[in-house]
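User: Can you model how 3,4-dihydroxyphenylalanine sits in this protein?
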Amino acid sequence: MLEKLEETKQAGMSSLLEINDEDALSQWKVSHIGRSSAIMDVFKNMNEVPKEERGAVGRAANEVKQALEAAFTEKTAALREVALQHSLSEERLDVTLPGRALSRGRLHPVTQTLREIYRVFADMGFQVYRSREVETDEYNFQLLNFPPNHPAREMQDSFYVQTEDERGDNPILLRTHTSPGQIRAMREYSGENPDDPPPVRIILPGMCYRYEQVSARSETQFTQVEGLAVGHKITFSDLKGTLSDFARRMFGQDVRTRFRASHFPFTEPSAEMDVECFLCGGEGCSVCKGTGWLEILGCGMVHPVVLENGGYDPECYTGFAFGMGPERITMLRHRIEDIRYFWANDLRFLEQF
Ligand code: DAH
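Assistant: Here's the modeled complex, given as C-alpha cells:
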C-alpha cells in the first residue's frame, strides 16, 4: 500500500513537470488531486485497509496529498509568472504613440449666428418667445393686415398642409415668416390683463417655409428672427436706436447703419436697415456689390390694425417690429455664396465653422 502511494506521488509529480499551460494544469488537477483521483480513492477506501496499517497508510496518504497540492500551487504560480513575463515583453504598450484624435461636434453656423442675436437682444432686455411653425392663414396673413389678394398669399408661395378640397377660407400652412408669432404673443400677454396689457419686448426665432424654386439665393426652409416691442410712447427713434445698437453689438462698435423707406402690410411706416459693409468697410466690394452697404433686416412701427388684432389699443400703445434672416447674415459674414449649403448636411461645409 505504501509503495502504491509512493507511485501515485511520483506519477503526479512527473506528469506535472511536463505541463506548460493553464488548460493542461486544470486537467492535471482533476486527475491527480480531484475528487476521483487515485489519492482521494485511498481516503475513500480506508475502511478496506487492515486496522493495524490504517495509521501509517493514513499518514502517508496525507503526506502525498499535501505534496501534490503544494506542487500544484507552485506550478500555478510559475505558469502565471511565465504568462506575465510573456505579456510584458510581447504586448508592450508604447505610451509615446500619438492618440486617436477625437472628432468633436460643433454648432451649425446658423445656430452660432442665432445665439449671437439672442445674446445681443437679451442684453437689451428682450426675451425669446417660441411660436408654432404650423399656422393658419388667419395668423400668417389676415391678422397681419395682408390684403386678400396680396401676391405673397398665392398658392405657389406657401406650403399648405391640407388638400385643396379641405382648405376653405382659413387653410393650415407652414408659416412663411415668424410674424404670426407677434399676434400669438400679443394675444397671450393681453389675455392676461385685457384692460391694461403689459409691455412686450420679445424676439421670435424659428424656421419658416416657402414654396419656392430652390436656388443659390433662396431655399424652401430658412430661419428668421422676428422682434417686437410694444408699450406706451414707443417711437420710430426707439426703433432706430435699438436696431443701430444691435448692429454695433453684432458687427462692431464702429459700424454705421442707414434706414430706407420700404413697405410691409403689418408696419406703418416701414423701413429696411442697411449696415455698412463689414467686409470692405464701406469701400465697395463684390459682397456689397460696390454699394458699401448690406441690407440686414426689415422693420417698422407696428400697424394699428395689428396692435388691435393683438389686443392692444392703438390709441394707448405703439410699438416697433423687425425681421431678419440669420442665413443671410451668416452668408455675408463668411462670404458663403450658396444658401443651399446650410441644410444640405455636407460635413465638408459644416466643419469649417
Ligand atoms: N415678415 C417679413 C418677411 O418675411 C420680415 C419683416 C419685415 C418682419 C418687417 C417684421 C417687420 O416684423 O417689421 O420678409
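A couple of observations from the model: The pocket of 3,4-dihydroxyphenylalanine is lined by residues 177, 179, 226, 264, 267, 298-300, 321-323 (CB under 6 Å). The chain has two domains: 2-90, 109-350.
User: Helpful, thanks.
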